[in-house]
Amino acid sequence: MTAASPxxxxxxxxxxxxxxxxxELAALQREHxxxxxxxxxxxxxxxxxxxxxxxxxxxxxxxxHPEALHADGFDSARPWLLxxxxxxxxxxxxxxxxxPPETGGEVPESARVSADHAERAAQMLDVREAVxxxxxxxxxxxxxxxxxxxxxAEAAQTLGVPxxxxxxxxxxxxxxxxxxLPDYSAGLH
Length: 189
What we know:
The protein is 63% helix and 0% strand. The protein is an all-alpha fold. The longest helix has 24 residues. The N and C termini lie far apart (82 Å).
C-alpha cells in the first residue's frame, strides 16, 4: 500500500470510543464499498439485501485479516476485497442451492391446514360418546353410512329396512347429534 492509502492514514484525533481499526474500516468502506456493492449486486442477481449482507461480510473479513490489506506490493486493497467478495457470493449461491429455499412466515393459500392430533382425538372421543346416546336403530344407520361408508342401498340391505327408512333414521340421528354436540354442528351434515 502507498503512504496515501486511507488505511495507513490515521486521523489526528479519533472520535471518543472509536479505535484506529474502526476508523480504518470506515475508510475502507467509504473507498471500496460502492464498487463492492456493485459487483455483489450483479453476482446476487439484483438481490440488494443479499448484496448488502455480503458487503458487510467482506468488510468483516478485512477486519479479521488486516495483514492482507497491508501486504507489500499492493497499491490498493480493492483487488483483495473484490476477490473475497466474489468468493463469498459464490459460497452463498452454493449454500442456497444445497438447501431448500427459505419461506416467509405466511402460510401459502394452497397449503392444507390440519388440526392438532390431540384435538382431533378429543373430538373423536366426544363423537363416540354422543353416538352411544342414540337409539340402536339410529346408531346402526350412522355407523354403516357415515363411519363405514356404506351407501343407503347397502345399509338398507344390511339392516333389512327400506332405503327411505335409512335416510329418515340418518336425518334424525344427525339432528340428535347436533343437539348433543353444538360446537361440531358444522361438520354434521
